[in-house]
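retry 2 of 3: previous attempt timed out while embedding magnesium ion. Reduced batch size to 1 and resubmitted. Inputs unchanged:
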Amino acid sequence: MPVIEINGVCKAFRDAKRNVEVTALAGVDLAVERNQFICLLGPSGCGKSTLLNMIAGFERPTEGSVKVDGQLVTGPGADRGVVFQQPTLMPWLPVWENVAFHLLMRGGQKGAHRRTAQTFIDMVGLTGFEDHYPAELSGGMSQRVGIARALLMNPRVILMDEPFSALDEQTRMQMQGELVRLWQHHEGTVVFVTHGIDEALTLGTHVVVMSARPGKIRAVVPLDLPRPRDITSPAFNDLKRYVLEMLHVDRSNS
Amino acid sequence: MFGTDGSTQTYSGTWVIAAFWSTLRVFAGFAIAAALGIGLGIAIGWSRRFEIIVEPTLQVLRPIPPVSWIPLAIVWFGIANKPAIFLVFLGTFFPILLNTIHGVKTCDRMLIRAGAMVGGTPRQLLRHIVFPAALPDIFAGLRIGIGSAWMLTVTAEMVAVKSGLGYTLWDSYYFMRYDIVIAAMISIGLLGYGSDFLVRKVMARVLHWQHGTTLQGEQG
Ligand SMILES: Nc1ncnc2c1ncn2[C@@H]1O[C@H](COP(=O)(O)OP(=O)(O)OP(=O)(O)O)[C@@H](O)[C@H]1O
Ligand SMILES: [Mg+2]
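retry 2 succeeded.
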């Protein structure tokens, strides 16, 4: 049984002020199996974030259904960890409390929570910054805190919305490597939104190409490249060309 | 500065007592207003339904100057501490309430999403995200409140109470002791400054995480 099942999902946003309806998604079907790493790729405004938000439970589909583990998604929950595009950390909490937020909200022993958080702080390479506040971190560090926070919940599914878009090239490549390593180690299911083709091809087991508004799924491209991936290899470039073509069909038609 | 009334036997000993009563009234009224204002403010800011129920009443009560409650306050509470505390409460309550509502309503939606994502119930979100996020606004309200608290204590003491710095001030005026009038005024100024300083100290402690976010780490 797929971990995530998306069936005939449509999403229309009603703009009350202008009295128009924006169709963000029109008939999306997608099944994500366990341990897959799905990269959602598509032009800006095609509904990638909307789709991710529906899996996370922040938005409800206008039509169709979204199921996770066979259960209809009705709201957000700790079985789905989300890494937001902006880090969205609690500015009044130090790093370790942000990472352990899931545990702290439930109460219990702070000492034990801190030890749990430490494991994940070390994992994302922030050892030594446990007591820093978000305002004292760089963008990339904040983003890593967000990743540690999602991992700590040990969720069935990790959803990421362009988590590395604010990073410089070098940090991004380093974080991509980390993410793949963590994913291989934890064996989770990942849905990763990006508009970088190289990023999608470096990370995913599959690339899902979406078409411009109203968003639809144009193609699901399985990637059988060996890891770590060499972005200069001929096989990589062949796939890149193919994915680019998929993306371009849009432009020539619209 | 109390060298002036240090030489006058009638007032030198009473200053401490007068200051004590005024301070007590300020903090009693302020504490009640803070508890109610923050509690009600969170409820109004969080629940649209609750807002619809209580908002109209509050909006009608708000424009009534606290001072105009003095006659009723005397009728209800007599001439003693209570009318002064009541007046302080009225004057402090609304700034605290409105700032709290604003703080709750402007809480970053993404932070609440993040809280819901880690599995928070509405109660937990309120306690662990909305309340701490509203604290800077709540403290802004408390600071406005503590300022008006002193104004209203003194006003009430001039009219409805027979003790405190306001009473001393008004009483001295009848005896044409302008030195004491001025001394009382300065006392009020200093005590008001001291109270605000205290609120600011508590605020700096509670909001210590803000240091890095303000320009140059300075806080006022
Ligand atoms: N809350 C909303 N209210 C109204 N319209 C919305 C809302 N959220 C998204 N939309 C519309 O839905 C469409 C898809 O938005 P979405 O954010 O999912 O795009 P995206 O693929 O994530 O784009 P990007 O790559 O730029 O982040 C857009 O046209 C947008 O205007
Ligand atoms: Mg987006």
